[in-house]
Specification:
This protein is α+β, with helices and mostly antiparallel strands. The chain has one domain: Alpha-Beta Plaits (2-Layer Sandwich). The chain contains 2 helices and 5 strands; from the N terminus they run βαββαββ. A 3-stranded antiparallel beta sheet has the order 1-4-5, covered by helices on one side. It has a two-stranded antiparallel sheet with strand order 2-3. 18% of the residues are buried. Bound molecules: iron/sulfur cluster. The site of iron/sulfur cluster has 16 residues, from α1.
Length: 94
């Protein structure tokens, strides 16, 4: 991690409202909860699809969506079936 040595005022604060880089490391759909409403697919079509049982399954291309979109898709699920996990393996949503 390079320190900002050339920062004119020795910037003491870190961050400053910059959104974090990719935080979602894994997505899971709880099939026992999913009711096939397809809201998640409407929001993130590369990340979710319905299988032949009308349950959402995470697609291999989910990383094509940015975290914000994936977060919106997860929040759109009426039954909280979409679980998001961070890089440390901890569940971050819901
Ligand atoms: S929004 Fe939730 S309930 Fe609807 S298809 Fe997606 S995972 Fe299933």
């Amino acid at each position: 991690m390079g320190a900002m040595a050339n920062s004119p005022n020795g910037n003491a604060h870190h961050g400053g409202g910059q959104p974090e880089k990719r935080k979602i490391a894994r997505i899971e759909v709880d099939r026992t909860l999913c009711i096939g409403s397809a809201t998640c697919i409407a929001l993130a079509s590369e990340a979710f699809a319905l299988d032949n049982e009308n349950k959402a399954v995470v697609q291999p291309g989910w990383k094509k969506h940015d975290d914000e979109t994936l977060w919106e898709a997860a929040k759109s699920c009426p039954v909280f079936a979409i679980k998001l996990f961070g890089e440390d393996g901890k569940q971050i949503y819901p």
